[in-house]
Design a protein that fits this description.
The protein is 64% helix and 2% strand. It has 8 helices and 2 strands; from the N terminus they run H-H-H-H-H-E-E-H-H-H.
């Protein structure tokens, strides 16, 4: 296990030299194919500490991905203010429930297994956004109903 984790850290650091885009994809692929939460956590921490993704960049990405689901843009704004990582470079976690992670505040307790089965890493911006799109296609906005007072106002204002 230690050798594997160390190997992942070296792989991540060597990919960083080659550019962020390939690093994101490689980490997402490697982390999502394993069910070992420790390896995912280590990989996620390495990604977070080596990548400075501003909330403006995340917001732009979210808006691009959710052109056909604008309610998800409002949900991301309400859930995380468009933050995938906190100021320290760690995955953004929920204030009420620490198991909620990332820009879309996907609950790792309930969704990490399904996300892994789908090949999605909810600890990356791309994976978190993709899994939220999957959830929305299955359940609508129901998974985010606890923040609906915030985002449902945006829907009402947009309709008027």
């Amino acid at each position: 296990m230690i050798e594997f984790t160390t190997g992942m850290a070296m792989l991540v650091s060597s990919m960083y030299i080659g550019g962020n885009a390939s690093m994101h994809q490689m980490i997402a692929n490697n982390a999502s194919t394993t069910t070992d939460k420790e390896v995912i956590s280590t990989t996620t921490q390495t990604l977070a500490s080596s990548t400075a993704i501003s909330s403006k960049e995340v917001e732009k990405y979210v808006r691009e991905q959710y052109v056909d689901e604008p309610i998800l843009v409002d949900i991301a704004r309400c859930e995380s203010t468009f933050r995938q990582f906190d100021a320290s470079g760690n995955i953004q976690r929920g204030k009420v429930n620490r198991a909620d992670v990332g820009v879309m505040q996907i609950n790792e307790k309930y969704h990490s297994d399904k996300a892994a089965e789908l090949g999605i890493n909810i600890y990356t911006t791309e994976g978190n956004v993709a899994y939220a799109k999957y959830l929305y296609s299955k359940f609508g906005a129901e998974p985010w109903k606890s923040s609906s007072k915030c985002w449902s106002q945006s829907d009402v204002l947009a309709m008027n």
